[in-house]
């Protein structure tokens, strides 16, 4: 079988590696020039996009910001999974919020803003602590602004002055004092069967995911069930096929959906060694019509992103249960270069291992690591 | 980093897949024409063997029957691991037996035969139940003969008449009434650190491995220790670097070494989902000078070879904890086409899963499966 993935980054690469044992050949589309490339070497394959679409059993994406003309061509083949409209929900916060509202899924109070004068009404109705998000093309904290105090509203308007809000409206959200961010990665197959991984707890720094711990500590059966219910509502409501990631804020007993990603997700990378079947394999199984794999966790895991950092000691592999996933990219500031998965029997051991890991890494690139190690050791 | 593997079959392919996340690029040598190929696609890469040797950080093998001229060229680079002499030990039963004797490692009573008349003396000293093995180029039961009864000695001699025993002597072994075959797969790094996986129990049919169960049932700490001691004696005695597989016969409390394989081994495929770090990754870690990974088992596992069979229901993936590893080769009789790993919490559950698996497979190709399922269910 063949699966063509739009996008030729690390997610396509990891799908390639997961597909190989199943006899599924994953090819990637470099959306910069529509070329079809090998997902690992990135070298062009000897076929063009039309031929690759023709030869594929399924088409899918590694990111939601695929140009619409490409998605339209893909959708026309009737092989695109998840569907174009589902992919666009992940790419457009207006569509996303509409979906959440239509399915009655709890999310942060928000307003759609197409004119900066509407910001005053936002402050009136949502309060003075707001997060303003471009509805499209935002990523890893880009395209986001904050208002923390009514007195700074004019300055905010100034900084937003250049935006074309007709083309890309803003979503203005009430800032929520959440306890933590959790994410649920799950998978739905063509028959509508759904499997959800245990919740992961995500630690961000400057808008980027730095560490995930899964299963998230202090999640009781009730909370896991509630998250799974939200996932099922969304995935079934969307008639979704493949892996879907749902980011949520936990506020006490309440879960508010923050964001959807219609694809394999960074907060699911822990599944590579921390679960029976990883998210990459399960995505391929789903889009190829194969039975879904077991999503049970194996012990507890942490996933540590390597961001903007190209040099560190490989001796970190001496930590038992540590696995390096290196993407083979050129180093750039804030660029995700790879990740490290660490598995342990319990949280205290996981904390010890993260503490050990911090000895091998240049900590300026890993601002969340030591504190998380301490937290887990005391858990 | 780059590792060049001599041999371009499934073992090179699985090393490629294990190397990718570590940032290790595995290339393969097709020893039929000395071409350097991609281990998955088997397509030629744009460099010749000399260039590939030059570019590699380490050279290694996926099978021991690499032509000696290639091994000599590889050894001359000072990058070949394990060493040429260690590879040849796996390729030549005369060298193998000499090693076992020199290290005082228990093995089956045997004689070296360079002339068929010596067979009479073999029967005198070893008894009338013998296994006769070509000292080189034997594989999966090829190049082996049996004597079960003194009266058939003349007929045996007749059938061996055509062999050139000066070029390829015979090793004649006393047939041992062993309880079962176990194998220990382990790894030794450049500093001499050794890690050994739990013993696997291997079920053969007509000279080919069909099923491995690991950790092998009914292995107490004492037996596991004894096997590890044998492994350490061999690996240290050989100054071995990389993954080494040691096949042993268990006779009561005694372990007799039957065969060494200087490479990743079919009886270690269960480690892909049944251990913290699989044998392919550990081999690469060792030859690249990286710290060895944890070899602890995760639950219990069975590895079921798919031999000579190209068609079966992919619905077998609905069995929880099942993973397909398909090699992408053309079907031929007795050819290893792939394998299925199945993980479970305990042997009884593993038995249930193998029983379920047998429903999805054409059983004429899987003669060991149903019986093993029953045995494990009752374990």
UniProtKB/TrEMBL annotation, chains A, B:
One of its GO terms (cellular component) is cytosol. Pathway: Purine metabolism; IMP biosynthesis via de novo pathway; 5-amino-1-(5-phospho-D-ribosyl)imidazole-4-carboxylate from 5-amino-1-(5-phospho-D-ribosyl)imidazole (N5-CAIR route): step 1/2. Pfam families: ATP-grasp, PurK_C, RS_preATP-grasp-like. Keywords: ATP-binding, Ligase, Nucleotide-binding, Purine biosynthesis. SUPFAM superfamilies: Glutathione synthetase ATP-binding domain-like, PreATP-grasp domain, Rudiment single hybrid motif. It catalyses: 5-amino-1-(5-phospho-beta-D-ribosyl)imidazole + hydrogencarbonate + ATP = 5-carboxyamino-1-(5-phospho-D-ribosyl)imidazole + ADP + phosphate + 2 H(+). Transmembrane segments: none annotated. Residues 97-288 form the ATP-grasp domain. ATP binds at residues 93, 133, 138-144, 173-176, 181, 204, 258-259. InterPro entries: ATP-grasp (IPR011761), ATP-grasp_carboxylate-amine (IPR003135), ATP_grasp_subdomain_1 (IPR013815), PreATP-grasp_dom_sf (IPR016185), PurK (IPR005875), PurK_C (IPR040686), PurT/PurK_preATP-grasp (IPR054350), Rudment_hybrid_motif (IPR011054). GO terms for molecular function: 5-(carboxyamino)imidazole ribonucleotide synthase activity; ATP binding; metal ion binding; phosphoribosylaminoimidazole carboxylase activity. GO terms for biological process: 'de novo' IMP biosynthetic process. Its EC number is 6.3.4.18. HAMAP family: PurK (MF_01928). Homodimer. Belongs to the PurK/PurT family. Catalyzes the ATP-dependent conversion of 5-aminoimidazole ribonucleotide (AIR) and HCO(3)(-) to N5-carboxyaminoimidazole ribonucleotide (N5-CAIR). Catalyzes the ATP-dependent conversion of 5-aminoimidazole ribonucleotide (AIR) and HCO(3)- to N5-carboxyaminoimidazole ribonucleotide (N5-CAIR). PANTHER family: PHOSPHORIBOSYLAMINOIMIDAZOLE CARBOXYLASE, PURINE BIOSYNTHESIS PROTEIN 6/7, PUR6/7. This is N5-carboxyaminoimidazole ribonucleotide synthase. It comes from Alteromonas halophila. The gene is purK.
């Amino acid at each position: 079988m063949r699966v063509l993935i739009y996008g030729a980054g690390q997610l396509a690469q990891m799908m390639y590696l997961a597909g190989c044992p199943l006899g599924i050949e994953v090819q990637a589309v470099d959306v910069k020039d529509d070329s079809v490339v090998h997902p690992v070497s990135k070298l062009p394959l000897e076929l063009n996009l039309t031929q690759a679409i023709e030869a594929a059993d399924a088409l899918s994406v590694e990111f939601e910001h695929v140009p619409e003309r490409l998605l339209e061509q893909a959708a026309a083949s009737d092989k695109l999974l998840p569907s174009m409209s589902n992919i666009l929900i992940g790419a457009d916060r207006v569509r996303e919020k509409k979906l959440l509202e239509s399915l009655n899924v709890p999310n942060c109070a928000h307003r759609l803003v197409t004119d900066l004068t509407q910001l005053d009404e936002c402050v009136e109705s949502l309060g003075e602590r707001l997060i303003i998000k471009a509805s499209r093309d935002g990523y890893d904290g880009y395209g986001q602004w904050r208002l923390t105090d009514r007195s700074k509203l004019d300055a905010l308007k100034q900084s937003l002055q250049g935006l074309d809000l007709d083309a890309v409206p803003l979503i203005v959200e009430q800032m929520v004092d959440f306890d933590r961010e959790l994410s649920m990665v799950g998978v739905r197959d063509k028959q509508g069967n759904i499997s959800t991984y245990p919740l992961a707890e995500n630690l961000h720094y400057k808008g980027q995911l730095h560490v995930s711990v899964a299963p998230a500590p202090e999640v009781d059966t009730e909370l896991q069930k509630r998250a799974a219910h939200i996932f099922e509502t969304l995935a079934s409501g969307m008639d979704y096929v493949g892996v879907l990631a749902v980011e949520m804020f936990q506020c006490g007993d309440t879960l508010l959906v923050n964001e959807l990603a219609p694809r394999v997700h960074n907060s699911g990378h822990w599944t590579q060694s921390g679960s029976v079947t990883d998210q990459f394999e399960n995505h391929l199984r789903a889009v190829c019509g194969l039975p879904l794999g077991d999503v049970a966790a194996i012990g507890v895991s942490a996933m540590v992103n390597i961001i903007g950092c190209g040099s560190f000691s490989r001796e970190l592999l001496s930590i038992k249960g540590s696995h390096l996933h290196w993407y083979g990219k050129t180093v750039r500031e804030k660029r995700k270069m790879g990740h490290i998965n660490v598995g342990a029997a319990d949280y205290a051991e996981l904390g010890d291992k993260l503490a050990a890991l911090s000895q091998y890494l240049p900590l300026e690139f890993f601002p969340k690591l030591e504190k998380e190690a301490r937290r887990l050791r005391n858990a």
